[in-house]
Amino acid sequence: MTADKPDMEALRRGGKILREGGLVAFPTETVYGLGGNALDPEASRKIYRAKGRPSDNPLIVHIADRKDLDEIAAFVPEKAQILAEKFWPGPLTMIFPKTGRVPLETTGGLDSVAVRFPSDRIAQLLIREGGGFIAAPSANTSGRPSPTRSEHVEEDLGDAVDMIIDGGPVGIGLESTIVDFTETIPVVLRPGYISLEMLRETLGEVRMDRGLLITDSSVRPKAPGMKYRHYAPKADLLIVEGEPEDVISAINGYAQKAQAEGETVGIIATDETFGKYPYGVVRSIGSRAHEETIARHLYDVLREFDKYQVKAIYSEAFYTPRIGQAIMNRLLKAAGHRIIQVTEH
Ligand code: TXA
Ligand code: MG
After folding, report:
1. Which fold has domain 8-223?
2. Which of 7, 159, 274, 336 would disulfide-bridge 284, Cβ 3.0–4.6 Å?
3. If you classify domain 236-341 with CATH, what class do you get?
4. Spatial CA neighbour of 170 closest among 157, 151, 191
5. Is residue 172 within 6 Å of ligand 1 at its C-beta?
């Protein structure tokens, strides 16, 4: 179905499954979510089981009406109201102290709750049909790239969900920006399409979680989910950084050497550089001139390489102006922070 032509009969069926404690995967503007009733501890347990997700990693509660926020958040500071006004519905998740209505099973044992009001119309209709409070992590097997098409959900979770709603490929392709409001100064726990700069323009002071900036493992990210290796394709992924010509010639060197040894590498290029790689399995992730195309295709490209017997995947780096921070956060995690620096300074 599409957002312009939602299949109400299917959405009502999905809503019924959710109200009865079942699991329904559905599109949002960021990535596909694996939905269950957020107020039902047993539904949350089912979500963890289906994803193979550690039970200390809390779920985001999705709502489809601003007023519902007060049912689950015990306190919503002024600054959060401003963000809600400006970015909801949209790719923004905010963390608040929780009320007693939200079971600890949903929040991974924490006394705070993450809340998001998605803009995707299919998601909104399903959330309403399902009772208004839908816990939904990304609908992938834990550790795999997040799903940006219903086929990805099918691949990972097929039999573990009661229904998959196909709304076609998503628009954004990276998970929502998470802002923590349980501290005096708002803290970004996960970068996303709504960038740190956009948040600072609206609110003034906003911090970035130290666990995201420092790769030293002594500083734990505050969002439990951000500490795991994540979004990873099956083959080893390496990021090659430096001046564009140096990056191209280094990657061609690795690819040529692999070919001489009877092996193949994967290469993640852009529309601008695609034609400059003569060896290996080369995929363009999007155009540097349109950074949102890079965000949109990242997970799809990572998954696509699982279909090939590649020895390793080499990727260009994508420090684009606005979404670059979010794109590189995901790519670095997928690569286990392995970077090859090819330009000497
Ligand atoms: O765009 C999105 O946010 C997607 C779509 C489906 O809405 N959902 C999503 O959920 O990305 P998930 O579960 O894959 O990621 C949720 C992240 C995890 O890193 C988790 O640790 C963090 O949010 N989180 C959730 N509740 C939290 C809390 N109370 N305190 C700190 N971190 C929290
Ligand atoms: Mg996830």
Report:
1. DHBP synthase (3.90.870)
2. 274
3. alpha beta
4. 151
5. no
